[in-house]
Design goal:
This protein has 314 residues and is an alpha/beta fold. The chain has one domain: TIM Barrel (Alpha-Beta Barrel), CATH 3.20.20. It has helices at residues 13-16, 35-40, 58-76, 88-97, 116-124, 154-165, 177-186, 210-218, 239-251, 280-291, 293-311, and strands at residues 6-11, 43-50, 82-84, 100-107, 127-131, 169-171, 192-193, 222-225, 258-260. Helix 10 (280-291) crosses helix 11 (293-311). The chain is globular. The mean pLDDT is 97. The structure holds zinc ion. The site of zinc ion (ZN) has 5 residues, from loops.
């Protein structure tokens, strides 16, 4: 494609930046979503997840989250071609200047220790979206890896109400189906899934059922297909498998509500040819060939941009 922009709803760069030898601005083997790679892929919106290992105690988790936010401020938001986005007016300013929009999200709420006041302070630091869990259980809910399969706790429900009050997005990725059902029952607003695929195409606990995908669409939410190979197919996944998931979501009516959340720097099984942010250049060409340029642009960028304009505070 001649010109395109990309919005990506999930990378784990910040976790890697805890290793102070790794530099976001440098092109190197350590980072899949380094600044040069993001620029090569024409990434104009990047959500940076705050992820810490949930096995650590809550105090250590909160410390590491703050350390990652510091790394974001020290290495990402200060780059002249990047601007931190916390609001719709920030987003409009970024578009008029042609910078990359950088947004913070929280992947897993263990660091909150069940307290909404910690969430409010993370929001003050610029965090604009959150998933309640990673794969494990915490004070808020059970993740998709918990055999017990519990739903939201009282603290989890309080966090969901606070997320809505703060205009922060609610991310369903990693949550157990029971918790997903609870969220859909206690809210009527939009929900999103930053990095997940379709379970009807590949049976995996991290993928979304058709009912949930339809509900995301009906509520004007958004979902980002992800490039972790084990969520795409059995055996070695290819870009063609990404298209199988995409075709399915389009069949469910998702042409205005689907895009991508790569999980670069967080995947353990990359897809060949789709293993770093610069590879969006190849994906853009293949999307344009397969779906036409207008739909390709919507999938790569516009759908998430529209979601942000609905979701972010003014
Ligand atoms: Zn994840």
């Amino acid at each position: 494609m001649q010109s395109w922009l990309v919005a990506d709803a999930h990378v784990d760069v910040l976790m890697k930046l805890l290793d102070e030898k790794i530099r976001f601005v440098e092109h190197g083997p350590e980072l899949e979503a380094s600044l040069p790679s993001l620029a090569a892929g024409h990434v104009a919106t990047q959500v940076f997840a705050l992820f810490v290992m949930p096995q650590a105690d809550a105090g250590t988790q909160l410390h590491d989250v703050l350390h990652e936010i510091d790394a974001f401020y020290q290495q990402v938001a200060c780059v002249p071609t990047v601007r931190m986005v916390k609001s719709r007016s920030d987003l409009r300013a970024v578009r008029s200047q042609g910078q990359m929009a950088a947004i913070l999200s929280l992947e897993g709420g263990g660091c909150l220790r069940g307290r909404v006041e910690v969430l409010r302070m993370l929001n003050e630091l610029g965090v604009r979206g959150m998933g309640l869990t990673w794969n494990d259980a915490n004070e808020l809910a059970d993740g998709c890896g918990e055999l017990r399969g519990g739903g939201l706790t009282r603290a989890g429900r309080a966090v969901v109400r606070e997320l809505q009050r703060l205009s922060m997005w609610i991310d369903l990725a990693h949550l157990h189906d029971t918790g997903v059902r609870d969220i859909l029952r206690i809210t009527d607003g939009p929900v999103m899934a930053s990095h997940a695929n379709a379970r009807a195409v590949h049976e995996h606990r991290r993928n979304l059922t058709d009912d949930v995908i339809r509900e995301i669409i009906r509520r004007d939410g958004w979902m980002g297909l992800t490039f972790e190979a084990s969520f795409l197919s059995d055996g070695q996944a290819t870009v063609e498998d990404v298209f199988r998931h995409l075709d399915h979501v389009l069949t469910l009516g998702g042409e205005h509500h689907v895009g991508f959340g790569s999980d670069f720097d967080g995947t353990s099984h990359p897809v060949p040819g789709l293993a770093r942010s610069g590879d969006y250049a190849n994906l853009a060409d293949q999307l344009a060939n397969r779906y036409g340029e207008a739909l390709a642009k919507r999938l790569l960028f516009d759908n998430f941009e529209d979601f942000l304009m609905r979701q972010l505070p003014a």
